[in-house]
């Protein structure tokens, strides 16, 4: 089990979402991680002396999360963990959960939290990086609570790519990557799921003062110019 062993509260001035109040921003920091289970001691070993920096990347289907994550990786050295990609990899590896995951994705629903958190945690445990972008997760309050329960960690920051529905639909239909969920029927279902289950998570982090809302309309480069200062402001803390 990961343990948060210290909590610092430096005040940082940076551009915050207009949807947030401008109250001082409290960073939940992890001075180091320890582990209660020696067999899973890698987290403790890798993060010894480093401060893990976790970013959740949220937004509707096709809002540009994956595209912007690539740019953040290039510019700020994060490890990108797309929850959707991890689940799709699980489908192709013919594991026990694979068939169920495929059905869930086709229906635009959310895979059981335990499955997704296990996959994310495995990736973090086996990484020698300490800066993570967790893309497309948590998808629901249940996901969020399970992540916190299992890892005893919270994200340092949360990005939210705010995009109009018609733009998201257009982008997904033009994606052409052969995804089983990139068709109009599933997109409609994904949008409903996003609104009913994912937006409450966005609101939760807004209330917690951790949310950065990015206007996701424009070119990918223009959008990244809104994202860049968020990470630049945190660079000192995440190195
Ligand atoms: N700013 C942009 N303008 C136009 N097209 C974009 C922009 N950003 C990304 N795209 C394109 O839109 C499609 C969806 O982008 P991307 O895969 O990054 O979204 P996503 O939020 O990760 O979606 P999903 O939740 O479905 O995985 C891709 O084909 C991508 O190339
Ligand atoms: O935490 C998650 C992330 C994703 N899913 C399912 O996967 C698809 C595709 O996810 P993308 O982020 O768009 O790649 C999503 O619609 C869900 O069905 C999930 O269940 N939990
Ligand atoms: Mg994506």
Automatic annotation (TrEMBL):
Cofactor binding note: Binds 1 Mg(2+) ion per monomer.
UniProt-annotated binding residues for CMP: 143
A single BP term in Gene Ontology: 'de novo' pyrimidine nucleobase biosynthetic process
EC number(s) per entry: 2.7.4.14
Annotated catalysed reactions: UMP + ATP = UDP + ADP; CMP + ATP = CDP + ADP; dCMP + ATP = dCDP + ADP
GO CC terms, sorted: cytoplasm; nucleus
Known role: Catalyzes the phosphorylation of pyrimidine nucleoside monophosphates at the expense of ATP. Plays an important role in de novo pyrimidine nucleotide biosynthesis. Has preference for UMP and CMP as phosphate acceptors.
UniProt cross-references to NCBIfam families, sorted A to Z: UMP_CMP_kin_fam
Subunit architecture: Monomer.
Name this protein carries in UniProt: UMP-CMP kinase
Organism field: Dipteronia dyeriana
């Amino acid at each position: 089990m990961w343990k948060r062993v210290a909590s610092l509260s430096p005040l940082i001035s940076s551009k915050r979402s207009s949807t947030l109040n401008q109250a001082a921003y409290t960073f939940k920091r992890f001075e180091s991680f320890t582990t209660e289970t020696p067999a899973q001691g890698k987290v403790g070993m890798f993060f010894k002396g480093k401060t893990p920096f976790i970013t959740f990347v949220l937004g509707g289907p096709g809002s540009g999360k994956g595209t912007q994550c690539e740019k953040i990786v290039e510019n700020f050295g994060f490890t990108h963990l797309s929850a959707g990609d991890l689940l799709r990899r699980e489908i192709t590896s013919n594991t026990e959960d694979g068939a169920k995951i495929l059905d869930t994705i086709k229906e635009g629903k959310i895979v059981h939290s335990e499955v997704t958190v296990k996959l994310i945690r495995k990736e973090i445990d086996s990484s020698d990086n300490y800066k993570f972008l967790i893309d497309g997760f948590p998808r629901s309050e249940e996901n969020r609570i399970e992540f916190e329960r299992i890892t005893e960690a919270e994200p340092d920051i949360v990005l939210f790519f705010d995009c109009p529905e018609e733009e998201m639909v257009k982008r997904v239909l033009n994606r052409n990557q052969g995804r089983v969920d990139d068709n109009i029927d599933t997109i409609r279902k994904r949008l409903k799921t996003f609104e009913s289950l994912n937006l409450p998570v966005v609101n939760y982090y807004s209330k917690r003062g951790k949310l950065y809302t990015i206007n996701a309309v424009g070119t990918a480069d223009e959008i990244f110019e809104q994202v860049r200062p968020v990470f630049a402001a945190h660079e000192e803390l995440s190195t």
